Each structure stands twice: as structure tokens, then as C-alpha cells.
From TrEMBL:
Gene name per UniProt: gpsA
Domain of life of the organism encoding this protein: Bacteria
Function text: Catalyzes the reduction of the glycolytic intermediate dihydroxyacetone phosphate (DHAP) to sn-glycerol 3-phosphate (G3P), the key precursor for phospholipid synthesis.
Principal subcellular localisation of the protein: cytoplasm
Family membership noted in the UniProt record: Belongs to the NAD-dependent glycerol-3-phosphate dehydrogenase family.
Protein name: Glycerol-3-phosphate dehydrogenase [NAD(P)+]
Pfam family, any one: NAD_Gly3P_dh_C
Length: 330
């Protein structure tokens, strides 16, 4: 089995570590020469994981023709880059290939889910199917082989099983699923709630507040996901509540970190002025706000985060407004 990983960032490196540990022939492709050289020559990706030794069998290159002959191609770039990397790899796909999506969010203009974007960007004769490999998994922990479970979700059950077998080992356990809509909605929407979790911590609120946010957050994720065809039970699994918990509670989460700085400063301007990291929940809040308005879905937390990020509302007022909304039964 030959696997190529597109993207040499944080999650691509986590995935490569798992595959190399499983004795899979794995090569990372990336555009950042420093990172690629670091991985190939020093077996490190120091930009993201200073003190972590990578499996020395991970190969890395800036030559896109490495995609040739791959049985599986894993896409580990931010959602804004998915369509363009699909177009870049297409000439080098020489058979029906399983494309593994690991990105969490929506297309920046069409608002499509990631599997939809990939199916629209890669011709049918080069695509076996799309498998979304998603769930609660901070790369910082996976590279250190900390026990992790996530899901291989696909409309093609055979390809989902292939990915399950290829990635599973004693520290990385993969379940399979077929609710593509519910799973991809769950992992996308949790990022905006994680920004809100960081904001609340930055404002100085505590554990009661976070528990309230996670509980009411999953309620609005379910309302939104069901309206688009996701199954309710999916949101109770790894790609729903599982990913919501890890992102809302972990200091590793860049969504949480971004929210924390916004809460501490009591303004999102600090984010727009300084952020250089991949923070998917910010754009997702905009997409979800727009789609929810169109469909008339009640999304109070996401809407407040949208107002903080895009309308200059101060987070302290947002938090109070959420508490003082019309009272209702749970
Ligand atoms: N970091 C994590 O723990 C996890 C991240 N994810 C998801 O994975 C996706 C990628 O995130 P990270 O790896 O964390 O981001 P990152 O910022 O650490 O790395 C992104 C990589 O994509 C590359 N890239 C960006 N635009 C590109 C383009 N046009 N062509 C080629 N390469 C390009 C960058 O050079 C970089 O190597 C996101 O959607 C994120 O939500 C999912 C699970 C865990
Ligand atoms: O999706 C993730 C963990 O499951 C990573 O979260 P962040 O993008 O917030 O770091």
C-alpha cells in the first residue's frame, strides 16, 4: 500500500506518524521547503512539534509527482486549499484512488462539505471514493502516540474498512461510519463552538460555563445537522460530541486558543490583526450563520460568535445576551 499525504502541517504529520508506525509506505508532500527538509533529513517537524522524534521511515518531498502510483491520498490542508490541491494532484492520479479527507469545515464560496468539494474536483475515473477520517484527535497528542479514536466515514463501506485497517493500531483506533453529512457537519460546527469556549475562558468564566456551552452547543449542532440530513445519533458519537469535547476543553486547540485571546482582549480585532494559524471555526461561523438564516434554524451561540468576529460586538456583552435570551424549557 502506497500512501501520499498532501500537506506538511500539524495534522499531516500526525497521520504520517501513525502510517509509518503501521509499516505503510508513506510520503508527505508539501510546499514549505524548510518543513519538508526537516522531516526528510532530521525526522522532525520542529515548526509544530519541537521535541518530538518522528518515525524515520516517513519520507517528505516538494515534488507533486510523488502522488503517482498512490493507492490512498490523504488531504491534510486547510479547507480553503482543498479544491486547489485536488486540481493539482489530479494529473498524477493513475488509477481509482481512495481520497482521505481530514479537513473540518466548508468550501469558502460554495459552502459545500469537504467530501462534496473533493467529488466535484476529481474526475470519477480517478476516484474510488472519499473517506473522511475525522474525530477527536489533536495532532500534538497523536505524534506522541497518545491513545486516540476517530472515525472513517464514507458512502463506500469497503473503502471505509480499508482505511480503518490501514490506520488502526494499539494507540489509534478507527471506527467506521456512513453518515457523511452528520459526521462532516459535526466536526465543522464544533470548531466555532470551540472558539466560543476559548472566549468564555478568556473572559474569566469557569467550568460551569464550559459545561453549559458544550451541552447547548451540541443542541444547536444537532438542530443544524438534522436540517441538512445528518442523523441524530451521529452527533452523539466521535464526530459529534467527541470532537466537540476535545476542542472545547484542550489547550492544544487553535480554535480555543484564538477564542481565548479574543475573550481576554474583549474584542476580535486582536485575532484579525495577529492570527497566522489555521483556525477553521472563524470562517465556519460565517457559513453556518448564513445557512442558518436562510433555513430559519435557531443557532444562538454560533450567531453570537459571528457577531463578535464579523460585527465588532464585544464578547462580554455577547455572553450576557446569551444568558438573558428568552427563557425556555431544555
Ligand atoms: N491539527 C490537528 O490536530 C487537526 C487538524 N485537523 C484539520 O486538518 C486541516 C489541516 O489542519 P492542520 O494540519 O492542523 O493545519 P496546519 O496549519 O498545521 O498545516 C496546514 C498545511 O497545509 C499547507 N497548505 C496550505 N495551503 C496549501 C496549498 N494551497 N497547497 C499546498 N499546501 C498548502 C501548509 O503549508 C501546511 O503545511 C484543518 O481543516 C484542521 O481542522 C483535523 C484533525 C486534527
Ligand atoms: O480538530 C481538532 C481536534 O480534533 C483540532 O482542533 P483545532 O483546529 O482547534 O486545533
Amino acid at each position: 500500500m502506497k500512501v501520499t499525504i498532501i500537506g506538511s502541517g500539524s495534522w499531516g504529520t500526525g497521520i504520517a506518524q501513525v502510517l509509518a508506525d503501521n509499516h505503510v509506505d508513506v510520503t508527505m508532500w508539501g510546499i514549505e521547503e524548510d518543513q519538508i527538509n526537516d522531516i526528510q533529513n532530521n525526522h522532525k517537524n520542529s515548526m509544530f512539534f519541537k521535541d518530538v522524534d518522528l518515525n524515520p521511515n516517513i519520507k517528505a518531498t516538494t515534488d507533486i509527482s510523488v502522488v503517482n502510483g498512490s493507492d490512498v491520498v490523504v488531504l491534510s490542508v486547510p479547507t480553503i486549499a482543498i479544491e486547489s490541491v485536488c486540481k493539482q494532484i489530479t494529473p498524477y492520479l493513475d488509477k481509482k484512488t481512495i481520497i482521505v479527507n481530514t479537513s473540518k469545515g466548508f468550501h469558502p464560496e460554495t459552502n459545500e462539505r469537504m467530501s462534496e468539494v473533493i467529488r466535484h474536483s476529481i474526475p470519477e475515473d480517478k476516484l474510488s471514493s472519499v473517506v473522511s477520517l475525522i474525530g477527536p484527535s489533536h495532532a500534538e497528542e497523536v505524534v506522541q502516540r497518545i491513545l486516540t479514536t476517530i472515525s472513517a466515514v464514507s458512502l463506500n463501506p469497503e473503502d471505509a474498512k480499508t482505511i480503518q485497517k490501514t490506520f488502526s493500531n494499539e494507540y489509534f483506533r478507527i471506527y467506521t461510519g456512513n453518515d457523511e453529512i452528520g459526521s462532516e457537519m459535526g466536526v465543522a460546527l464544533k470548531n466555532s463552538i470551540a472558539v466560543a469556549s476559548g472566549v468564555l475562558s478568556g473572559l474569566g468564566y469557569g467550568d460551569n460555563t464550559r459545561a453549559a456551552l458544550i451541552t447547548r452547543g451540541i443542541a444547536e449542532i444537532i438542530r443544524f445537522g438534522e436540517a441538512f440530513g445528518g442523523k441524530r445519533e451521529t452527533f452523539m458519537g466521535l464526530t459529534g460530541i467527541g470532537d466537540l469535547i476535545v476542542t472545547c476543553t484542550s489547550p492544544h486547540s487553535r480554535n480555543f486558543q484564538a477564542g481565548y485571546e479574543i475573550g481576554k482582549a474583549n474584542t476580535a480585532q486582536i485575532f484579525w490583526d495577529t492570527n497566522k494559524k489555521t483556525v477553521e471555526g472563524v470562517r465556519t461561523a460565517k457559513v453556518v450563520h448564513e445557512l442558518a438564516e436562510e433555513k430559519g434554524i435557531e443557532m444562538p451561540i454560533t450567531n453570537e460568535i459571528y457577531k463578535v468576529l464579523y460585527e465588532g460586538k464585544d464578547p462580554a456583552t455577547s455572553a450576557k445576551d446569551l444568558m438573558l435570551r428568552q427563557l425556555k424549557p431544555e
